[in-house]
Every structure is written in structure tokens, then in C-alpha cells.
Structure to design on (478 residues):
DNA sequence: CGACACCTTGAAGAGGTTCAAGAAATGTGG
DNA sequence: CCACATTTCTTGAACCTCTTCAAGGTGTCG
């Protein structure tokens, strides 16, 4: 058995710059390679973790696409985010040693499993990792502030425009098109995330198409007028 | 000059159990006392930090009451949270070394200033602090998930009920009444937080009063029927 | 190829917003 | 300490956005 062939190594992962700190010494890089215990495949439609489950690890998404969602006993359901390659999920579990939401793969996925006690251990030694972990958590807090702004103050069109621009921008950062994207989620999931009903999402898509801002063919979306969408998001003066 | 009299000491602060880890050795406790550089008073209506300002420190609230809010150039405004004694604010600033929201004192307040580089330094040595910092950030993430659920799936009554119950619960944890509270914020600020207009907040208060669930006299609120409010929040079956 | 999930569109209805006016509380300056 | 200005809160009426309910269409997967 050749350990080289099996060993999971952040040091030569091409997603490193997305999920790991940059500019490390050789020595620190080697320490980081101890972070990832194993990789885990998650089939489409199955969960990486669920509400109530014991928290042990954070997960770095290598491939695939996830949603995280809250489901309360009384039947409410809220998608709290969509995550793609290079992003970290599981942060919600730290506070009470158990997860408070479900992470569902929206397409076949693979994640790097990073046991949290090991993260804490190594980040005591590698300052860059410590700082990185703090920044990742802070980034999530800031992202959620943005969602609160969206849910609290935007109208349906503005929400969907903001959503599309955010998605395409993140995909672009991963080398995909600036204007075309394939939605991995249903209208209902988009609606849940945006605080809208699926019919409203559908209607708003249709409206964007009528106005020539996007082309939509099922889950294939092409953004024709980025500035137009941007104006919708920024400019709430027009109402 | 007697250092004893001036020295800020977490080790004998009565809010310690709210903002600091528990069960530390004498030695670790002493290390923790190096965390707080100074205290700072913040007059009502003034800001502790503002959007764009350089991030240097986290703040533990000793006395007083804050709101954090996002204000975008185009005039949107969103209250992202209300914070009280024992809670930590400033986490949003970590990711980009600058704050992304404003923290406004809603009454005269005093905070403990904890330089973040010192927090990172000490938490490399004191495992309990490291863990504590992680938990605080995770707790904020989970709290915001809850707000997303509220904004994304609740109706006006449900939102206000959830808001009141949350406030009174936090106050109760600080030794105040389980049923009476004084709101430190305006109807407009409540509305912004809950994604409603101030008129809707006012009307919903009136409705609760009519139904005998609460008594309201300006900012003085007395919760008469806690279970009733709880039912509103949990039970979305009734519509 | 048939069953199922997903999406679109229409029409009616509800919940929340907007606009407006007035009342109550709070703060300020003389 | 009182009078006045200002902010905050309440309530009504009309309106608008989004939801609900319903039906039909499209795509997908075993």
C-alpha cells in the first residue's frame, strides 16, 4: 500500500487558495496536510450532516454543491445557504457540539473531512491557520448580514437579482462563466432561501426574461444585462 | 497610583460567566486579565464603531444596549441585531480588517475593549479561550440562521412574538423579569430588524394588547401570556 | 413509456405597505 | 420650570405586492 497514493494533501490541492491560508512555509504546509482526515463522497440528495447530529468536523467542499437548511418541528423550513467548491460548511455545530441544520448535496459531491479538534490543535501552532479559521467564521457572519438585508428590505425582483449576481460571481471566481450558470437547486429551494414562494420565483424569472435581462431555460440561466440586475439591487430609489 | 484600583480584571467581573470561558486555572485566569486593554464609555446615540472603520478589537458589553446595523449607499438600512450586557460585538470586522456595520449605543454604555491580536495570542496558549472564541462566533452564526428563518418564513405576528420572547429570555438570563421589559429601541428599529414597517409593528403590538397577550405602555412591555406567544411562533399550522 | 418531480401561468385573496393625520412623550432653550 | 419643537407612536383608508389555489405543461428517470 503506497501512502503517497492515498494520502490526502492540501499542499497540492488546486482548491487550496480557496479554503486554506496562503503564503505558508514548507513546514507549516506539512502541518496543514494533517488537517484532513479523510475525504467523503456524498451522493446527490443525501445529507452530509443533519440537525441534532454530533459535531466533530468541518468540511471543505471539493466538488459538488450543497444547501444548508433549517427544518423546525412545526414544519417551517428555511434554506440558509448554498455552498460550492472551496467553501467550508459545518460552522454551526461548534457552539453546542451538535449540528443545528441539515447539509444536503444538490449534486454528487466530495468533501474533505477536517476534525475540529485537529483544527484547533494545529491552529495553536500555525498562526496563519488560526487567523484563517477566524476569517472564515467572520466571513460567514458578514454573508448572513447580507442575507438579512436582502430578506428584510428587498422586494422579490431585487432578491432574485441579488441572488443571481451572487451565484454567478462566486462561480466566476472558480473559473466559470461570468454570464452563464446552471442552477443546482429547484425554484422552491431558491424561494425558501429568498423568503419567497416558488411561484413568485418563477414569475420573477419570467419577468426578467420579458425585460430581456436574462435568458432562462429550466435551470440554465444566461445573464444578458448584468448592469440591469445590478441597478435593481442597488437602486431602490425607483419605487 | 494604585494599579489595583485601575486595573481592569475579568477575573473578578460579575459578567465573566457570560463573556468568558469557565473553569480556568488560576494561571489561565491571570492570562485572561491581559485581554482587556481598556474600557470605553459610549454615549447614547453615538457609535462604538462604524462601517468602513479599521477593525482592531472585539468588544464585550459591560453595561448598556446596542444595535448593529447595515446602511447601504442606496439608502437601504437593516438592523442586524440588538446586543446587551455580556455579549460580544465586532466579529464582522475580522474577515477584512474593517467593520462592515455600525454599532450604535441605544443607551449610555460601557464596553471592554479586547484587541484582537491579543485575543489570538492568548488563545494560542489558553485552550479554553480558543474554544470560547470559536463558540462565540459559531453562536452568532446560529443566531443569524434563526433570524433568516424568522425573516424568510414568519408573518408579522409571529416575528414580533419571537422577538419579544427572545428579548425577555435574554434579559431573564441576566437577572431581570421573565415577563416585563423596557424596549431600548424605537418601533422603527424593531421593524427594521424584523423586516416590517414601523406601522406594522405598532399595529401588531395593538393586536397583542387587544388579545390580552401583552400590556404595552410606550416602551414598557409586560408579557401576560407567554405560552400564547410561544404558540404563535411554533404553530404555523393555523393558517 | 409512464410516473413523478418540477416549472409556468392565471385569478382571487390576504397581509403588509404607503400616505396621512393626530396624539403622546421627550428633549431643549429661554 | 414651563413652552415649544421634535421625535415617536397610533390609527385609518387605499393600495400593492406577494401568496394561495388551481390547472396544465415540461422534463427526467427508472
Amino acid at each position: 500500500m503506497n501512502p503517497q497514493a492515498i494520502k490526502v494533501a492540501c499542499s497540492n490541492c488546486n482548491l487550496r487558495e480557496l479554503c486554506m491560508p496562503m503564503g505558508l512555509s514548507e513546514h507549516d504546509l506539512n502541518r496543514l496536510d494533517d488537517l484532513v482526515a479523510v475525504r467523503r463522497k456524498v451522493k446527490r440528495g443525501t445529507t452530509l450532516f443533519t440537525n441534532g447530529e454530533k459535531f466533530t468536523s468541518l468540511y471543505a467542499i471539493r466538488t459538488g454543491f450543497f444547501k444548508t437548511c433549517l427544518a423546525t418541528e412545526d414544519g417551517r423550513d428555511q434554506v440558509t445557504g448554498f455552498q460550492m467548491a472551496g467553501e467550508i460548511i459545518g460552522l454551526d455545530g461548534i457552539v453546542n457540539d451538535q449540528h443545528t441544520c441539515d447539509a444536503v448535496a444538490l449534486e454528487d459531491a466530495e468533501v474533505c473531512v477536517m476534525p475540529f479538534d485537529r483544527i484547533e490543535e494545529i491552529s495553536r501552532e500555525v498562526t496563519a491557520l488560526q487567523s484563517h479559521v477566524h476569517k472564515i467564521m467572520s466571513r460567514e457572519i458578514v454573508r448572513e448580514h447580507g442575507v438579512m438585508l436582502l430578506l428584510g428590505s428587498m422586494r422579490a425582483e431585487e432578491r432574485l437579482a441579488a441572488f443571481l449576481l451572487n451565484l454567478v460571481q462566486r462561480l466566476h471566481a472558480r473559473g466559470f462563466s461570468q454570464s452563464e450558470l446552471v442552477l443546482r437547486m429547484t425554484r422552491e429551494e431558491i424561494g425558501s432561501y429568498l423568503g419567497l414562494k416558488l411561484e413568485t420565483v418563477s414569475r420573477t424569472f419570467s419577468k426578467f426574461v420579458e425585460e430581456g435581462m436574462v435568458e432562462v431555460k429550466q435551470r440554465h440561466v444566461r445573464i444578458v444585462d448584468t448592469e440591469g440586475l445590478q441597478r435593481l439591487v442597488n437602486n431602490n430609489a425607483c419605487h
In short: Chain B has two domains: 3-148, 154-238. Residues 172 and 178 of chain B are 5 Å apart (CA to CA). Confidence is low (pLDDT under 50) at residues 1-5 of chain B.
